Amino acid sequence: MKISKLKKNHILINGTVLDPFNESEKKADVHIENGKIKEIGKVSAPENSKIIDCKGLFISHGFFDAHVHFREPGGEDKEDLNSGSMAALAGGFTGVCAMPNTDPPIDSPELIRYIIDRSEECPIHIYPIGAVSKSQAGKELTEMGAMIAEGAIAFSDDGLPIGDAKVMHNALEYSSMFDVPIINHAEDECLKGNGVMHMGKVSTNLGLPSSPGITESSMVHRDLELAVYVGARLHVPHVSSARSVDHIKALKKKSKKISAEVTAHHLYFTDEDLVSYNTNLKVAPPIRSKNDKKELINAVKSGVIDCIATDHAPHTIEEKEGTFDIAPFGMIGLETCYGAVNKILSHDNDMSQISLIKCLTVNPRRIMGLSQDLFKIGTDAEITIFDPKLEWRFLEKDIYSKSHNSPFINQRLKGKVKATIVKGHIAVQD
């Protein structure tokens, strides 16, 4: 991947401009002047312009991931803000929300400021999510107001469920004062026990401890009911079970403040893929059954699930080399996201490109309270250029993360990011 500074005038020609905000698709040129959108249409290129031929390619808003783990501070051997940014660029992401389960957790205004200051040095936009509870212990709430003042965009104890319903209720009440979402990792720890995969025939055959889908759906239902009761914003992360989808669909009818995401890996894999004991497929919540996958796909297509995230979770080779029962949960996913979801949703299940791209751009930005009209004249250019038809095999050399814990290695994907424009620079794939 080659990164270079934008010229004074950059012209993208012969491409299909896909505008997910205005839901339009047309052949047009894009003129970027001094890093900002100057004109979209038939462009007369000024002298000394840099011309990029986008024939056969789509030009869209930069992708946005509402759920990544960049491990800084404390886990820089796995990932840091800069290396995570490089992985994001390779995947077409111009902005991400960084989860707070670091060491120490991002649970104070000072640590929010640290992330904000560090992100200024990075090639993409990084928005910090603050911890709901101090030390992510699930007991005492953090200073949400002061953290928002420093730049926190939402709150989550992701990785650690908020088991105490009263704490969750109080968190929703507190966050509602600022109209920001609470994001709870919905897995009932009592029901989960020592489960490391989905409960079913496959787990029985493999002899691995497991947990049922109700481990997630019961807590999702609790959180939804509390959010409706309080009138607060709730974002349900990494939905994995069909029953959770049912709850979200039902409670969305009662509140417009409810949103949900699904990961690329929950759309792509099923528990049957775990027969190889590949520890890179050990995630929380777990990869579930074919029926769960089917219902997740339907939920994205129908709009019950609003957006697609990666839950990019780096781990070292040493950590993932252990047996399946002791390896940590999590996989990386930024570099492979578009190719995976385009294959499953667009190619295999006839979802339109504009609907798919909305799930990767407009919808996650809307949920996080960010500007969504990225093609508005005068806006800082955040653009992803991609080929939706290109079939390619994901190889280890395509990884830009410090960690390589990806189950997508050697998978054939459909659709590839060719270039990403953000912060006055352009990153072009080799």
CATH first level of the largest domain: Alpha Beta
Number of strands: 19
Tell me the distance between the termini: 5 Å
CATH architecture of the largest domain: Alpha-Beta Barrel
**How many DSSP helices?**
14
- Structural class call reads alpha/beta
Count of the domains: 2
- Compute the CA-based radius of gyration: 21 Å
Largest sheet features:
9 strands, mixed
Helix content: 25-40%
| CATH topology category name of the largest domain | TIM Barrel
Strand percentage, roughly?
15-25%
**Overall pLDDT, averaged?**
97
Shape: globular
CATH-defined superfamily of the largest domain: Metal-dependent hydrolases
Poorly predicted spans: none
Question: What would you say this structure looks like, in words?
Answer:
- The protein is of the alpha/beta class and 430 residues long.
- Helix content is 29%, strand content 23%.
- It has 14 helices and 19 strands.
- Strands 1, 2, 3, 4, 5, 6, 17, 18 and 19 form a 9-stranded mixed sheet that branches. The chain has a 5-stranded parallel sheet with strand order 10-11-14-15-16.
- Helix 2 (109-119) packs parallel to helix 3 (144-150), helix 4 (165-176) packs across helix 7 (214-230) and helix 7 (214-230) packs parallel to helix 8.
- The longest helix is centred in the middle third of the chain and has 17 residues, at 214-230.
